Every structure is written in structure tokens, then in C-alpha cells.
């Protein structure tokens, strides 16, 4: 296909796509981009690709429906079960068995895995099947398997869990027989038991905030982010890798694809050699090294004549004065947290609380720091510490709910969110948490009510305004999320609006 759009429009559209959905098309891929733009223009009913591009560039950018069409036509949905077998071999023979043994030894039966850019769900379901074979006592475990993508169409297909023969190439027929039900027309549906292990969610790796308790993108043991970083420009890819690294617990694992970038891009992490697989690990930062001992230089000087040492004069010893270490400032602790240095943030916050034990802000930040390390018992303890003397802290109730939900206690999370909303009925973050919880539990009418409340609370705010209670999400982004979820739930309920 020869390009028909002028280079200046293609360059501008490449920049717009990069900024809005994180898809980067350098000049040598503009032909592919124009082909996708043409398909999206036809789908959306524009008279020509030129008219569509001009509208997308001049009308404030594509809206949610248009972005969905663009993502659908510009991203590749080519995947299958247990794709890149060597990566799954590394997971199944070493990484996950070691994690499982470690957790058993500690009595903490939990695992957290994120399939970022999950496409149509084959990767996430492959992980679920692998875990099922590795955990004969899976019912005793709390397993979080989050699967996200920027393409809502892929997510809908993933949630349906129905696949054709092409998705099973290279897969052992016995595995298909075990985990799938045959449907007419050569299609297969994933087992409901395996499907329940996976939570599918929209997430933009470039724009959306993470790690965050609110999106469940924190404290991951393993992240698979394969065949996606190649879509980003260099700065975006580096930023995504740093944020993925922050989303991992210490000693957590990141598995990109071999085509996603060179080792320097993964500098926050350490390359771990596995045959045929690209694997990185987040090793704990080394303890602060002690300052080097002062070096004493010795000079040999031959004196002209011996000089007797003078008798020392009596000197009174100075009084001993205990020097108290400075109290770490909350701003310094927040800076450590924002950099993903959660272990250091914990140390500094605990030092601060030793001097100021009733500092609610420090306790809540400490709870978040612990939660981002996967230490949920300690996180809950510090939330409760706030509530012990301040029962009307809406933020503490909200944060405790996020921790309870992560620990698999949906009933306790719902009760905590109700308390938070009673104390702060205008809290957008709490309405969003309640909407997501209701949606996960199949309470669609309740979920839609909270999404409507969110849209109402956002009215009058500038789209670029940052929502501090949502880890930096913008008003415009949340408005899109709420509107899309509200409409999708209405359709699922039979067109009820």
C-alpha cells in the first residue's frame, strides 16, 4: 500500500496516538499506521481517511468510541495459549515453584501476577492453567491474576473465554480437553473455574497511574508485559519499565518479550539468564554502605635532632551531649514513596512515628508503603492505628477497604467503603472503589449508580486536572472510564439506561 496522507498529517497523528493511547509509530511504520487509520475511518463512517484524521487532529482529539476503534485497528491481536513456551517453562519449572515454596514456608498462601497487555486473554488463561497444575491446594490460596489491555474489544473477547483452533497451536490436546468445553463450529470455552481466577480490566500503561492499590497494580510477584514495549517510543518505554518495576515486590519478576527492548532499558532490574526466555528480577536495594574509614598517611622524616615530647596539659573532658537524630519530614517520606523506594519510606516513616505517634498522614503513607511491598497485615495494622483514635477518618476506612479487598475479604471491604462514603459522600475515589467492587460481584445496578455519581462529581472540573486521591489520574481519563463502564453495564443489563 502506498501512502496517500501527507507526511505532516501522519507525523501529527503519530504524536496524537502516542499521547492518547501510547501507540508509537515512527516514520518507517507510517504505512502500517495509515492502513489502520483507514480501517478505523471506514468502521466509524467517515467519508475518507483524510476527513477522519483531520477531525481527530482538530476536534480536541478522538473520543472514547473513536479511541476504541483506533486501538482495535492499530494493535495486533496475534496471540495463542502458552505463546513463547520457554517463558512458560521458566515460570513453571523455576519461578513459580520457588515462589510457592517460599510462601508455604512462611505460611502466606498468596500470589499476585499481572498480565499487562493481555490481548484476547490467552496469556492470562495460560497462567491460570499453569497455576492450577502447580497448586493442588489452590482453594487455600489467595491468587490475584490481573489481566489488562488498552483495547476494550480484546478485553470483551477475553472475558467471553471462547477460542478457535488457531489459539491452540502447539498446545497438548490433553490440556485442552481438561480445561475447555467444546462448542459448535470448532470453538472452545474456557472452564468457569479457570475463568474465575482472572480479572480483566482496561489499563493504559502510558497514561494510567500505577502502581496503585485502587487499580490493584501494586505488590506484584510476577508481571508479564510481552510484545508491547515495542509499540512505545524510547522515553515512554523507559517510563513504563520504571513503573512496572515499582509495581513489583522485592525479588519480583518481569518477563518482557525478546523483541521489546535492549537490556539497558531495563536498568532498574537485573537480567536473569533462562534458556530461550527474557527474564528480569527486582533485587532489593543493598543496605547503605558504611562510609570508608579515614586513610592515615604516614611520612618518614629524619629529624635533625631528637625533640622531647612536651608533657600534656590537664584538660577537662567536655560534657557528653546526646544528639537526637532529626525527625524525617513527611515530604521526604512522600518523595521516597513516589520514587518506589518503599523499604526506605517504611524506615523513615517508622522513625517519624516514634517521635509523633499520632501523625495520621504518616500512618496512612506507611500503610500504603507496606501494601506496595505486599505486606498486607502490616498495612492493615497501620490503617487500624489511625482508626483507633480517629474513627471518622474517611481516608483510613477507604485504604483499609482496598487492603481488605486485596486480601480477599470482599464483605469487610464493602463495610469499610460504606463507612468511608458515609463520612465523605463526595469522595470520587470511594465511589470508584464501590463501583469496581459491585461490578466484580455482579451487582451491575449498584455499579452503574456509582459510575453515575462519579460523572456527576467530575462535572465542572477541567479534564487535565489531577485527582490526588487516585494516584495522579486526570479528570478527563476518569470521566472516560466512568462513562464507558456505565454504558457497557447498561448494555449488559439489556439496554437499561
Q: Could you characterize the architecture of this molecule?
A:
- Residues 289-305 have low confidence and may be disordered.
- The protein has helices spanning 7-21, 30-44, 49-58, 64-74, 85-106, 122-134, 152-160, 173-179, 192-195, 234-247, 330-338, 342-355, 360-371, 376-389, 394-406, 410-423, 428-440, 444-458, 475-492, and strands spanning 110-116, 142-149, 162-163, 180-183, 187-190, 198-202, 220-225, 248-256, 270-271, 280-281, 466-467, 473-474.
- The strands form 3 sheets. A 7-stranded mixed beta sheet has the order 6-2-1-7-8-10-9. Strands 3-5-4 form a 3-stranded antiparallel beta sheet. A two-stranded antiparallel ribbon has the order 11-12.
- It has 19 helices and 12 strands.
- It folds into 3 domains: 7-74, no CATH class; 85-281, 3-Layer(aba) Sandwich (Rossmann fold); 357-492, Serine Threonine Protein Phosphatase 5, Tetratricopeptide repeat, CATH 1.25.40.10.
- With 497 residues, it is of the alpha/beta class.
Amino acid at each position: 500500500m502506498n501512502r496517500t496522507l501527507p507526511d505532516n498529517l501522519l507525523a501529527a497523528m503519530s504524536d496524537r496516538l502516542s499521547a492518547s493511547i501510547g501507540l508509537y509509530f515512527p516514520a518507517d511504520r507510517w504505512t502500517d499506521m495509515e492502513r489502520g487509520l483507514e480501517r478505523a475511518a471506514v468502521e466509524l463512517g467517515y467519508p475518507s481517511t483524510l476527513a477522519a484524521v483531520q477531525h481527530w487532529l482538530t476536534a480536541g482529539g478522538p473520543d472514547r468510541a473513536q479511541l476504541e476503534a483506533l486501538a482495535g485497528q492499530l494493535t495486533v491481536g496475534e496471540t495463542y495459549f502458552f505463546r513463547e513456551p520457554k517463558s512458560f517453562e521458566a515460570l513453571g519449572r523455576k519461578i513459580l515453584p520457588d515462589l510457592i515454596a517460599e510462601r508455604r514456608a512462611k505460611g502466606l498462601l498468596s500470589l499476585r501476577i499481572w498480565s499487562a497487555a493481555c490481548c484476547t486473554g490467552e496469556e492470562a488463561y495460560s497462567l491460570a492453567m499453569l497455576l492450577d497444575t502447580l497448586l493442588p491446594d489452590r482453594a487455600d490460596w489467595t491468587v490475584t491474576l490481573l489481566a489488562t489491555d488498552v483495547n476494550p474489544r480484546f478485553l470483551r473477547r477475553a472475558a467471553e473465554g471462547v477460542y478457535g483452533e488457531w489459539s491452540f497451536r502447539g498446545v497438548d490436546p490433553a490440556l485442552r480437553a481438561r480445561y475447555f468445553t467444546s462448542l459448535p463450529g470448532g470453538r472452545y470455552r474456557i472452564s468457569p473455574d479457570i475463568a474465575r481466577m482472572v480479572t480483566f480490566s482496561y489499563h493504559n500503561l502510558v497514561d494510567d497511574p500505577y502502581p496503585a492499590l485502587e487499580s490493584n497494580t501494586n505488590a506484584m510477584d510476577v508481571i508479564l508485559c510481552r510484545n508491547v514495549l515495542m509499540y512505545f517510543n524510547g522515553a515512554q518505554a523507559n517510563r513504563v519499565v520504571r513503573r512496572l518495576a515499582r509495581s513489583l515486590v522485592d525479588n519480583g519478576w518481569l518477563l518482557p518479550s525478546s523483541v521489546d527492548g535492549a537490556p539497558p532499558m531495563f536498568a532498574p532490574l537485573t537480567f536473569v539468564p533462562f534458556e530461550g526466555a527474557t527474564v528480569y528480577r527486582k533485587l532489593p536495594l543493598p543496605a547503605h554502605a558504611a562510609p570508608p574509614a579515614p586513610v592515615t598517611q604516614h611520612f618518614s622524616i629524619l629529624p635533625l635532632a631528637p625533640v622531647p615530647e612536651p608533657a600534656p596539659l590537664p584538660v577537662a573532658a567536655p560534657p557528653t551531649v546526646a544528639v537526637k537524630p532529626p525527625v524525617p519530614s513527611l515530604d521526604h517520606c512522600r518523595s521516597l514513596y513516589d520514587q518506589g523506594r518503599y523499604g526506605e519510606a517504611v524506615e523513615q516513616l517508622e522513625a517519624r512515628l516514634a517521635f509523633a505517634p499520632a501523625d495520621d498522614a504518616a500512618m496512612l503513607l506507611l500503610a500504603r508503603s507496606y501494601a506496595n511491598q505486599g505486606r498486607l497485615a502490616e498495612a492493615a495494622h497501620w490503617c487500624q492505628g489511625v482508626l483507633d483514635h480517629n474513627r471518622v477518618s474517611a481516608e483510613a476506612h477507604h485504604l483499609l477497604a482496598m487492603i481488605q479487598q486485596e486480601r480477599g475479604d470482599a464483605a469487610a471491604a464493602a463495610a469499610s467503603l460504606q463507612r468511608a462514603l458515609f463520612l465523605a459522600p463526595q469522595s470520587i475515589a470511594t465511589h470508584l472503589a464501590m463501583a469496581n467492587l459491585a461490578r466484580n460481584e455482579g451487582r451491575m445496578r449498584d455499579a452503574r449508580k456509582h459510575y453515575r455519581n462519579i460523572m456527576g462529581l467530575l462535572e465542572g472540573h477541567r479534564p487535565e486536572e489531577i485527582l490526588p486521591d487516585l494516584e495522579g489520574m486526570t479528570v478527563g481519563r476518569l470521566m472516560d472510564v466512568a462513562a464507558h463502564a456505565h454504558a457497557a453495564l447498561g448494555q449488559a443489563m439489556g439496554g437499561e439506561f
